[in-house]
Design a protein that fits this description.
heterodimer, A: about 325 residues, alpha/beta, 2-enoyl-CoA Hydratase, Chain A, domain 1, 2 domains, 14 helices, about 45% helix, B: about 280 residues, seven-stranded mixed beta sheet, two-stranded antiparallel ribbon, globular
């Protein structure tokens, strides 16, 4: 875990730099051909590297600072976005964004975790770790969506709920628990996409949906690999082992029936080409919405119950 | 590593097999007094000096709550598998065998039905001695079955929590149990059936962040540790020592998250009183 955590990206970075340097020079047919060749090579190398990521490498990709966040997907996929703030009880939590927008012309509600990119933003967003107000704000928006018969799109990207004194005092556990119960009963379509990190209860608190999609290199787990390693291996340095043992990748979750579909990412990961990542995701959301809108809203909780009722594995 | 330095092997975590350790005398976890074991047992496993509530097994709990200690267990035929083939320093499968031999086949929760002060109820009680009461697929399934049974029979549900949270060895499947149980409780609420959550020491993590906090009433035993994040995690995050009494039952009442604290000796009478009130129609 020492050094550059994204070391495996080295060959990709090198190629990109070469292409950039060549492009900066005067355009000549020979040079253009060379660039084209390098481009091809880049695509090949990227898909090779990204096709064979270990669970721990995927965790690092899911946390990549250039990875598209909720607000990026909103800008790329939705129109007329209007954000709303506050839980009407205590405060606004910038680690969760909520609002209303249009998707393919249709009015809808959007909720999601939000991380920050630079230091100032990161602190403002509390590193994407919600406090109880964030969960309560999201629930308020979702209840409003139900009231006005609007479908809900939820984007998951958090390391987990914030473990702080104030968060505990104001009922972090209660806020998550209430979301789980209330989301189960919402009489409106709820489409969830895990776009980056799906960290434990803080992720699930926005994740009880009729459809749950997951980007190819996103991860979703009961506890962070570092947390699991610290408890079971007694050392956070074993995080790569814990990441492998907990089966946190999209392919694993699909296998265990937790998610509905894996959404492919562009070669080199979503951070290499966010607009393309959004373009790939769009038809999944569109199809799910069409399907779900065929069912009467009041019947959706029954379907959702059946979906989650099946989850788990035990022997008789 | 220098040759003279002794390499320290990490200690295996061993959960206490019984709430009160064997021997004639026991040391209270809270006041550290050495107390006579028999005296503690006769006192409902409550420390006679400081009234710390020792942990109870699920069946001890049933005996205290059901009339004449008469109850019928159900959902007894399911046990944990190893869906992820999980291995840390030890295989999950092997860990399960050890706990099954030591604690019993019921995993970390037992479900039963019977009468509490004459009211028909379904009660589930967690078994802390089984892997720290951790919630995996079996706990999720059994509690969902309990909620569904209460719904079918039109009876109230009581869950006595005692757990460190979700079971890491079942990964994401454990996390999803939170959603599953909460969804079942939503149906119970829809049917206007009472659900009372009894929180005992300790109730943390994913258990608190789902069913333990969703009671129509959340009733805690005195001094019980109740929280989402464990105290150590919070200390690491804020880099400060936590104040005395943080995340104790009394702290949760003060912050409006728990309805009341009830001494173990009063628990049954309290539950009975509320249930009769709620079911009066």
């Amino acid at each position: 875990m020492n050094g550059d955590p994204m070391q495996f990206e080295e060959p990709i970075v090198r190629l990109r730099r070469q292409i950039e340097e060549l492009s900066a020079m005067e355009a000549e047919p020979a040079r253009q051909a060379e660039i084209a060749e390098l481009q091809q090579k880049l695509t090949k190398v990227s898909s090779e590297i990204y096709g064979n990521l270990t669970p721990w490498q995927k965790t690092l990709v899911a946390r990549h600072p250039q990875r598209p966040y909720t607000l990026d997907f909103i800008a790329l996929l939705f129109e007329e976005w209007s954000e709303i703030h506050g839980d009407r009880k205590f405060a606004d939590d910038p680690a969760v964004v909520t609002g209303f927008a249009r998707f393919r012309g249709q009015p809808c509600c959007v909720v999601g975790h939000q991380k920050g990119r630079n230091t100032k933003e990161k602190i403002f967003r509390n590193f994407g770790q919600p406090r109880p107000e964030g969960f309560r704000k999201a629930l308020r928006a979702m209840k409003m969506a139900e009231k006005f018969h609007l479908p809900i799109f939820s984007f998951i990207d958090t390391q987990g709920a914030y473990p702080g004194v104030g968060a505990e005092e104001r009922g972090q556990a209660e806020a998550i628990a209430v979301n789980l119960r209330e989301m189960a009963a919402l009489q409106t379509p709820l489409i969830v996409t895990v776009i980056g990190e799906g960290g434990s209860g803080g992720a699930l608190a926005l994740g009880v949906g009729d459809r749950v999609f997951m980007l190819e290199h996103a991860v979703y787990s009961v506890i962070s690999p570092e947390g699991c390693a610290a408890i079971l291996w007694k050392s956070a340095a074993n995080a790569p082992d814990a990441a492998a043992a907990m089966k946190i990748t999209a392919a694993d979750l699909k296998k265990h029936g937790i998610i509905d579909e894996i959404v492919p990412e562009p070669a080199g990961g979503a951070h290499a080409d966010p607009p393309h990542a959004a373009e790939i995701l769009a038809p999944y959301l569109e199809k799910a919405l069409k399907e779900l809108q065929k069912t009467k809203g009041s019947l959706l909780p029954e379907e959702r119950y059946k979906k989650f009722r099946k989850m788990g594995y035990f022997e008789k | 590593m220098a040759w003279f330095r002794k390499e320290k092997k990490p200690k295996e975590a061993v959960e206490k097999s019984t709430a009160i350790p064997e021997g004639l005398w026991v040391k209270c976890d809270d006041c550290k007094e050495i107390v006579y074991r028999k005296e503690v047992e006769q006192n409902l496993s409550v420390c006679p000096k400081c009234s710390y509530h020792f942990r109870l097994s699920a069946r001890e709990r049933f005996s205290m709550l059901f009339d004449d200690a008469q109850y019928k267990e159900f959902a007894t035929n399911i046990k944990s598998g190893d869906p992820l083939e999980f291995k840390d320093t030890k295989r999950y499968r092997d860990r399960l065998k050890v706990y099954e031999a030591r604690v019993g086949k019921g995993d970390a929760v037992l479900c039963a039905e019977g009468k509490l002060e004459g009211v028909n109820v379904v009660i589930s009680a967690m078994e802390y001695a089984f892997m720290g009461g951790s919630m995996g697929s079996v706990v999720g399934e059994k509690l969902t079955l309990a909620a569904e049974r209460a719904l079918d029979k039109g009876e109230p549900l009581i869950i006595v929590s005692c757990s460190g949270g979700a079971r890491m060895q079942e990964g994401i499947l454990s996390l999803m149990q939170m959603a599953k149980i909460s969804a079942a409780l939503a149906r119970l609420a829809e049917a206007r059936l009472p659900y009372i959550s009894v929180l005992t020491d300790p109730t943390t993590g994913g258990v608190t962040a789902s069913y333990a906090m969703l009671g129509d009433l959340n009733i805690a035993e005195p001094k019980a540790l109740i929280g989402f994040a464990g105290p150590r995690v919070i200390e690491q995050t804020i880099r400060q020592t936590l104040p005395e009494g943080f995340q104790r039952a009394e702290f949760l009442v003060e912050h409006g998250m728990v309805d009341l604290i009830t001494h173990r000796a009063e628990m049954k009478a309290t539950l009975g009183r509320f249930l009769r009130c709620f079911l009066a129609k």
